[in-house]
């Protein structure tokens, strides 16, 4: 029988098909017999999550209405359904699986890839099938063919699925219970908003809220420094006395003590020059390229992930959803063999400093499912590069230059430190002289702000007499700066430093903070979409709605990054076979029961205020249900597809029959084809009515059932 290969999405399936001779059919590729598949094979695909958890009312009709009396929502058995509009493709997969004896999971090699495959496979109810796992990091033809020759068994894959399923169910439970609980209680306070609660999104919003409070409550404090300007034989330079003083009188007293008054001679009492070096940067993981791209080009983390995925599917870079900055000797070998060809792509030839792998970059023990993001073996032609968008070109070059830096020489400079003695008071100066730019020539367009601020010192000699002028300089402390989107990604990864408890701090370090490498940008987009934060000119700020949420969850475990870190740590145990899904979901149920019992009294005396409408224009809502290429984006007075220039005319109104359609309503229409029952529509005759809104064949319709 022909084995059936299941890819995560059509583009991935097409990349696999490129490695073989195939015939295209509706919903699958027919691989012709070859050395790898002597009888041929079928390649089919999901469309992301073909199978999803049912909503609460599908589990139990009493959960249809949002009510505190019906909480907690704890299904005895979770029920799944085929996602809206995806039944046809599911039917194709099911038929192919039933007609074979071997199924190959070729979805992404991560937790969600395993979840997508097994949720589809389990929903077909197929039995007695041999399941194999494709385990690759590149979609190049050679790598794809090698991967199919070296298929893994599904032992590890099944554990990853158990972990993913436990994560999916726990997130559903927290979201369904927490969102209803807080929304209903806050609405009792007069705020007519829906408040989405999430295991990762809520503590993320709270950390942004904490930063906003630090900025808001910051009181600038003056400080005073002693600064000397010195004129030597070869030029002038400045120096400062170590330490800052809180009051002007303290600085004056120090001057009186050393009998310094305005202009006074000094002596170069210490002169030390050291040769220093800066090593080439480490290779990129997803979070580092997201932070770098945000700093350099103000790209959002979500846009970086989307663009990196496109480059991966174009076979130009390796798998982007990686959390490691290391490669194995195998990758180093092909990079080293092609280093000159990579240099030509950026037209910057250089002599390779070393062809020996360094532990700074090459360490198999640091590589698990995926290695660092590097260029593939494929050397793109000029025509291929010309067809890349600006974002694709910038990110491809960033990966390329960072990889090439591994083969370049160190950045060399001399650092000079000078102590100038003025009547026994030491004034300190430092300067930097560049010796060899080394790997930094690859990033010559970057503005190295720290280096540019380093002053150049004149040529000085020990014991040289200099003319000096000393003044008291006043400054003031600055508040912390709000996060950029790139810094927010880094903060989510390193948020353990905000936690005082040593044990919790260690757990956060172990699981690398909030979310995972693959999900952090999605979490940021989610909290944008829910109106908790806004991003203007790359600066992240909390909204009034975000303030209300954080005031509501303050003092609760939902605000604590340590809580979600503990859950993530236990999920990893499930993934290694040392933890139990039943035990984990049982602890989630206990947590929710505790929440439902305690939160009403916690919120009883709290007062909330929201005065302004939240501007959600520019927020990405969901993939366009019509063209499946663009993204539905909220505009000022409507929702429209980003691919309108390519001809997609899909829009949704912002107000329909006097009813405001929120981002969440439009997201439901795009992803599920229908909303919950919405209250407050007004007919042309002036009569108010309630109905579900449905999206069918490009049209909005009412469902009065």
From TrEMBL:
Domain (Topo IA-type catalytic): residue spans on this chain: 157-596
Keyword DNA repair: no
One term under GO cellular component: cytoplasmic replication fork
UniProt KW Metal-binding keyword: yes
GO molecular function annotation: DNA binding; DNA topoisomerase type I (single strand cut, ATP-independent) activity; metal ion binding
GO biological process, one term: DNA topological change
E.C. numbers: 5.6.2.1
Superkingdom per UniProt: Bacteria
Recorded catalytic activity of this chain's protein: ATP-independent breakage of single-stranded DNA, followed by passage and rejoining
PROSITE patterns: TOPO_IA_1, TOPO_IA_2
UniProt xrefs under Pfam families: Topoisom_bac, Toprim, Toprim_Crpt
Record's keyword terms, sorted: DNA-binding, Isomerase, Magnesium, Metal-binding, Topoisomerase
CDD domains with a match to the protein in the record: TOP1Ac, TOPRIM_TopoIA_TopoIII
Enzyme class: isomerase
PANTHER family cross-referenced by the UniProt entry: DNA TOPOISOMERASE 3-ALPHA, PROKARYOTIC DNA TOPOISOMERASE
Family to which the UniProt record says this protein belongs: Belongs to the type IA topoisomerase family.
Protein name as annotated: DNA topoisomerase
Species per Swiss-Prot/TrEMBL record: Paenisporosarcina antarctica
């Amino acid at each position: 029988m022909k084995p059936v290969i299941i890819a995560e999405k059509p583009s991935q399936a097409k990349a696999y098909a490129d490695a073989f001779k195939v015939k295209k059919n509706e919903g699958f590729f027919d691989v012709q017999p070859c050395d790898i598949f002597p009888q041929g094979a079928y390649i089919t695909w999901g469309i992301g999550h073909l199978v999803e958890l049912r909503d609460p009312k599908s589990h139990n009709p009493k959960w249809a209405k949002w009510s505190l009396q019906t909480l907690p929502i704890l299904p005895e058995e979770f029920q799944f359904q085929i996602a809206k509009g995806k039944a046809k493709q599911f039917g194709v997969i099911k038929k192919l699986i039933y007609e074979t004896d071997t199924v190959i999971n070729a979805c992404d090699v991560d937790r969600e890839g395993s979840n997508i495959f097994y949720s589809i496979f389990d929903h077909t109810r197929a039995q007695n099938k041999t399941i194999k796992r494709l385990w690759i990091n590149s979609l190049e033809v050679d790598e794809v063919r090698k991967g199919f020759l070296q298929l893994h068994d599904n032992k590890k894959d099944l554990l990853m699925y158990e972990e993913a399923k436990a994560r999916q169910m726990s997130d559903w439970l927290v979201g369904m219970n927490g969102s209803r609980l807080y929304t209903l209680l806050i609405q009792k306070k007069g705020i007519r908003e829906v408040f989405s609660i999430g295991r990762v999104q809520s503590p993320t919003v709270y950390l942004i809220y904490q930063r906003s409070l630090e900025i808001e409550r910051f009181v600038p404090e003056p400080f005073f420094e002693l600064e000397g300007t010195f004129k030597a034989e070869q030029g002038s330079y400045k120096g400062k006395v170590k330490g800052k003083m809180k009051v002007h009188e303290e600085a004056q007293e120090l001057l009186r003590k050393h009998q310094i008054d305005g202009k006074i001679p000094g002596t170069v009492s210490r002169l030390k020059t050291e040769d220093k070096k800066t090593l080439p940067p480490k290779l990129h993981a997803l979070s580092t390229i997201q932070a770098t791209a945000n700093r350099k080009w103000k790209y959002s983390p979500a846009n970086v992930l989307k663009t990196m995925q496109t480059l991966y599917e174009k076979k130009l870079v390796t798998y982007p959803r990686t959390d490691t900055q290391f490669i194995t000797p195998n990758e180093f070998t092909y990079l080293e063999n092609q280093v000159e060809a990579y240099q030509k792509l950026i037209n910057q030839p250089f002599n390779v400093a070393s062809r020996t792998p360094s532990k700074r970059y090459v360490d198999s023990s640091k590589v698990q499912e995926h290695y660092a993001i590097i260029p593939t073996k494929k050397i793109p032609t000029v025509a291929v590069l010309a067809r890349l968008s600006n974002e694709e070109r910038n990110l491809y070059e960033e990966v390329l230059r960072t990889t090439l830096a591994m083969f370049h020489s160190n950045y060399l400079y001399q650092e000079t430190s000078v102590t100038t003695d003025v009547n026994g008071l030491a004034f300190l100066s430092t300067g930097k002289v560049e010796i060899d730019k080394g790997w930094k020539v690859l990033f010559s367009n970057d503005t190295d702000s720290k280096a540019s601020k380093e002053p150049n010192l004149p040529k000085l000699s020990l014991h040289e007499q200099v003319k000096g002028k000393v003044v008291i300089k006043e400054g003031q402390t600055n508040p912390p700066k709000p996060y950029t989107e790139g810094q927010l990604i880094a903060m989510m990864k390193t948020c353990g430093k905000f936690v005082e408890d040593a044990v919790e701090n260690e757990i956060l370090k172990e699981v690398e903070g909030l979310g995972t490498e693959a999900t952090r940008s999605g979490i940021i987009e989610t909290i944008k979409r829910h109106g908790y934060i806004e991003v203007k000119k790359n600066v992240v700020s909390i909204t009034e709605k975000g303030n209300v949420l954080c005031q509501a969850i303050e003092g609760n475990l939902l605000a604590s990054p340590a809580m979600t870190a503990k859950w993530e740590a236990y999920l990893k145990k499930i993934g290694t076979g040392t933890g139990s899904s039943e035990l984990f979901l049982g602890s989630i149920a206990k947590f929710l029961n505790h929440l439902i019992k305690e939160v009403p009294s916690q919120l009883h005396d709290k007062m909330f205020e929201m005065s302004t409408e939240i501007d959600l224009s520019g927020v990405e809502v969901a993939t366009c249900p019509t063209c499946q290429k663009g993204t539905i984006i909220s505009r000022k007075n409507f929702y429209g597809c980003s691919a309108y220039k390519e001809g997609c005319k899909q829009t949704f109104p912002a107000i329909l029959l006097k009813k405001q359609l929120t981002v969440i309503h439009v997201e439901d229409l795009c992803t599920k084809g229908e909303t919950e029952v919405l209250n407050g529509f007004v007919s042309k005759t002036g009569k108010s009515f309630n109905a579900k809104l449905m999206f069918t064949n490009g049209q909005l319709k009412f469902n009065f059932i």
